[in-house]
């Protein structure tokens, strides 16, 4: 009996979704592209999204994308993993986002995107600067991870003990952010290479917690009895180490004071 690999199932859903967007958008859709771990490898059935990029002729197609995505996500639990980015080709050529297409994902499209249907426009996408990538990832961290709710969860985990996706992302976000900052172009790091880089460092904070996140991402059960002491011992030190490195990086790139201050305030709240 042949068993379909999770990555193959995810790619089939991505291709199905691409066809649905083409039907909804018609000639306005220039192309659809795989991003993320389905494009560069390392897809995890337990933790990965199905990342899809859409490129349009014009910028006013967002509502059609949102409606089509909602309909697709209702088809199955795996369909709910769809994460879709979109922008017009003129904006991508100019290094702008006129839809939902952050700089890091635009860089992924240029470097690792895989054509699902339509024209191959990857070489036309303007690559964001390293400074732009630094600022974007820092703002993402403050907006998503430095909230009072998440900070409280880091100190007294509840959802982290039962939600495999949130557990792996919360532990591996700072690892990926730090590794991305060491790459020549500031490119998006995949989890496997970021983890390998982090664990190869001497005295890396929370190394055993990072190893556990790698195992859970690969399909190891998330056992609260195993995860709780690892989180208690390692999560805050992991983030404080990331914040210290990020503050240095932001200052080196001339980041706005309010962004640097937000990281310093986050560090105080964690400490």
UniProtKB/TrEMBL annotation:
- Which InterPro entries does the protein's record reference? NT_sf
The record's annotation in SUPFAM superfamilies points to: Nucleotidyltransferase
Q: What is this protein called?
A: Nucleotidyltransferase domain-containing protein
Species of the source: Amycolatopsis plumensis
Taxonomic lineage = Bacteria, Bacillati, Actinomycetota, Actinomycetes, Pseudonocardiales
């Amino acid at each position: 009996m042949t068993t379909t690999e999770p990555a193959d199932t995810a790619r089939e859903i991505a291709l199905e979704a691409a066809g649905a967007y083409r039907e909804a958008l018609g000639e306005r859709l220039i192309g659809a592209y795989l991003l993320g771990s389905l494009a560069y490898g390392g897809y995890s059935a337990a933790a990965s999204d199905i990342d899809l990029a859409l490129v349009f002729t014009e910028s006013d197609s967002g509502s059609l994308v949102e409606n089509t995505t909602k309909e697709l996500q209702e088809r199955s639990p795996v369909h709910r993993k769809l994460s879709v980015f979109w922008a017009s080709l003129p904006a991508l050529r100019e290094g702008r986002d006129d839809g939902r297409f952050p700089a890091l994902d635009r860089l992924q499209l240029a470097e690792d995107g895989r054509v699902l249907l339509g024209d191959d426009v990857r070489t036309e996408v303007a690559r964001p600067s390293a400074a732009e990538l630094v600022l974007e990832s820092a703002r993402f961290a403050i907006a998503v991870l430095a909230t009072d709710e998440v900070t409280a969860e880091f100190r007294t985990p509840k959802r982290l003990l039962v939600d495999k996706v949130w557990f792996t992302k919360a532990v591996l976000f700072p690892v990926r952010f730090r590794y991305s900052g060491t790459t020549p172009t500031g490119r998006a790091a995949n989890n496997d290479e970021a983890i390998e880089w982090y664990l190869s460092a001497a005295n890396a904070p929370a190394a055993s917690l990072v190893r556990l996140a790698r195992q859970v991402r690969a399909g190891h059960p998330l056992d609260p009895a195993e995860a709780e002491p690892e989180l208690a011992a390692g999560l805050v030190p992991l983030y404080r180490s990331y914040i210290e490195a990020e503050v240095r990086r932001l200052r080196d790139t001339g980041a706005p004071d309010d962004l640097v201050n937000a990281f310093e305030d986050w560090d105080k709240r964690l400490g």
